Amino acid sequence: MRRRLLALVCVSASLLTGCGVMSDSAEERRTVTVWLMQHSASQDFLDRFTEEFEREHETLDLDIRIQEWTGIGEKVQQALRGEDPDGPDVIEVGNTQVSAYAESDGLLDLTLESMRDWGRDDWLPGLAEPGRWGSQQYGIPWYAANRVVVYRKDLFRAAGVTPPKTRDEWLETTERLDTGDTQGIYLAGQDWYTLAGFIWEEGGELATEGSGVWKGALDSEAALRGMDFYRRLQKLGDGPVDADEEHPPQAGVFAEGNVAQIVAVPGLVRAVVQQNPALEDKIGYFPVPGKEPGRPGAVFTGGSDLVVPAGTDAEDAAVEVVAALTGARWNTDLARTMNYVPNKADLAGSVAGEEGLEAMAAGAARGRATPATPRWSVVEADNPIKEYMTKVLTGADPEKEAERAARRITETLAFE
Fold first, then answer.
1. What's the N-to-C CA distance of the chain in angstroms?
2. Contact criterion met (CB below 8 Å) for 198 and 227
3. DSSP labels, 56-112
4. CA-based nearest residue to 92, from 33, 4, 45, 31
């Protein structure tokens, strides 16, 4: 973060010409410190990017430092407070974390660059929207990942069905697949990220904001329709109603061989094939279907944004790094290297030919993020949505349980 300065100290003006002062054309070299998260980019990608960036920016050196997700929130907050004299100039953060950091006035406002130079209106909404705080853009979309339907091609053929184009077709297809020892779909009862997509597809919200006040919205008619679709789909398999997709890990369940579909990011298939190599050529992908043909359903978009600490003393250089990493060339390179979705819908062609990535990119155009309030992380920690889902799936009154869950969300978001 600190500039490398060559200090030339002369004891008097008369000695100035003998001090070896450099000409105006010689510029000082600066180091730009970049924090990136573990496994976000391969070492080969980082090596290639660093080499070319430094070649194109002759006065800049990159110092890329890999961080672990565990404990990163407090570490970033400390850096934004300036507690680390050798802290970062650019930081990778989860797309839903930006508001918490922006609220403390710790981030550089990049609205001007976003609108003038970087094509903000073309970014995927699931990355761009959570990168804003108020009307200002602080987080710059880097990469995205979202859920698709991972399915068994052989089981679909045996049942005489093809990937559905609408949610109604999805239910019909899954019902035909759900026979004998085969589960039509494995959908855990508390997979609330998948539920969020169903709610958004119906026009509902997890929470809404008015005049600066956030309120839970699971009790709206639209949100209730989303939950009802989840209930109808979930019962066409044996997913536990009182656990999420990691308990047990759904990759392991799918690898057992008697599940026709799961809802997951394409990268999960690596874990499936590791456990059951025989499935490698039997797995396909399609976007989560929407209500209308030819229009994928809404999905939660996870991913990362790049931010610049407000206190950096290498602001211009940091902005250059962000511009390069999020620009078309290196963003599409990263997407191909790491099986991500690029940050703009019009870059989706860069992953053409990769079935899983194509399905994910199609869904990403309808991607959304969780409510843009710093308090949402507290909601997730307590997560009344999971409890609500389990109660509905076990026969409780949906309207009453939705009202109860919405009230808990409202109380959590209002607490200071």
1. 34
2. yes
3. HSTTEEEEEEEE-STTHHHHHHHHHTT--TT--SEEEEEGGGHHHHHHTT-B---HH
4. 33
Distance, CA of 368 to CA of 365 (rounded, Å)? 9
> pTM for the full model?
0.82
Omega before residue 248 within 30° of 0, cis: yes
Please report the pLDDT score of residue 85 as a whole number: 79
Q: Per this entry, what is the length of the chain?
A: 416
Q: Give the Cα separation of 269 and 288 in Å (integer).
A: 16
Which pairs from 273-279 meet CB under 8 Å and 24+ separation?
A: 275/251, 279/152, 279/255
Tokens for 55? 């070649």
Rounded to the nearest 5°, which phi and psi values hold at 213?
Answer: -110, 125
CA distance 371 to 374: 9
Q: What does residue 249 show for φ and ψ, rounded to 5 degrees?
A: -60, 125
Answer yes or no: are the C-beta atoms of 331 and 145 closer than 8 Å. no
pLDDT (tens digit per residue) in 136-161: 999 999 998 999 999 999 999 999 99
Confidence check: pLDDT of 326 > 50: yes
* 3-state SS assignment for residue 130: helix
Q: Smallest Cα–Cα separation from 181: which of 152, 207, 210?
A: 152
Residue with tokens 């699931």: 126
